């Protein structure tokens, strides 16, 4: 009799466990069907992107705007030559996506700024982050600082070097990297704002 009661308890616990698992799976499926990716707003080189209440990774940059002035893919040697920079590092990118931007404080409050190290460029199945060593070399006015706060109605032009490594690209893409469609990501959420770095 005692064994039968224990068997019934085990069966009931098993049935309840299965029902809970099914309910969880249904809820998970329901929630994920409702979620959608952030809407994407695309800009071209030369257009001003207002940050508004959108964030990139950690912080709001409300009151700031960014404009991509120009962008080009350079080999590491071409990059050093362009900026008269020294070859100081042992681990360097194979190529650099050199992106010139102008940051502007439209009406940001004193606690708001821009963290340059959060910016990146992105293409199909590839992403390239900022090379902070090279950033410092080509923007000596930053003095090694990556977080910038500007006075209202002021701006600064900065060269952002994004490291590109051959092993991250297919061979045919790497040999024609200038034609590869990459975007500068200005914000991620709630609106993803990107700047096309290629001719449309």
Report the structural category. alpha+beta
The name CATH uses for the topology of the largest domain is Immunoglobulin-like
Radius of gyration: 24 Å
Spatial arrangement of strands, main beta sheet: 1-11-10-6-7
What features would you highlight for this structure?
single chain, 200 residues, alpha+beta, Immunoglobulin-like, 2 domains, five-stranded mixed beta sheet, four-stranded antiparallel beta sheet, 4 helices, 26% helix, elongated
What would a concise description of this structure say?
The protein has 200 residues and is an alpha+beta fold. The chain is 26% helix and 32% strand.
Folded structure, characterized:
The protein is of the alpha+beta class. It has two domains: 1-35; 40-196, Immunoglobulin-like. It is 26% helix and 32% strand. The protein has helices at 2-34, 76-83, 132-138, 171-175, and strands at 40-43, 48-50, 64-75, 95-105, 114-115, 120-123, 126-129, 147-148, 155-164, 182-187, 192-196. A five-stranded mixed beta sheet has the order 1-11-10-6-7, with no helix packed on it. A four-stranded antiparallel beta sheet has the order 2-3-4-9. The radius of gyration is 24 Å and the shape is elongated. It starts with a helix and ends with a strand.
């Amino acid at each position: 009799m005692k064994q039968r009661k224990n068997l019934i308890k085990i069966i009931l616990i098993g049935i309840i466990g299965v029902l809970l698992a099914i309910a969880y799976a249904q809820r998970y499926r329901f929630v994920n069907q409702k979620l959608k990716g952030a809407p994407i707003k695309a800009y071209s080189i030369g257009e001003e992107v207002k940050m508004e209440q959108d964030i990139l990774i950690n912080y709001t940059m409300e009151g700031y705007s960014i404009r991509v002035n120009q962008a080009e893919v350079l080999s590491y040697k071409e990059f050093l030559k362009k900026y008269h920079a020294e070859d100081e590092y042992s681990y360097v990118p194979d190529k650099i996506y050199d992106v010139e931007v102008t940051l502007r404080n439209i009406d940001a409050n004193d606690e708001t700024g821009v963290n340059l190290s959060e910016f990146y460029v992105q293409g199909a199945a590839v992403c390239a982050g900022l090379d902070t060593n090279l950033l410092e070399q080509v923007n000596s006015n930053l003095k090694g600082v990556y977080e910038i706060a500007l006075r209202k109605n002021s701006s600064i032009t900065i060269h952002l070097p994004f490291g590109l490594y051959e092993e991250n690209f297919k061979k045919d893409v790497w040999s024609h990297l200038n034609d590869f469609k990459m975007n500068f990501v200005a914000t991620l959420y709630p609106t993803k704002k990107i700047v096309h770095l290629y001719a449309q």
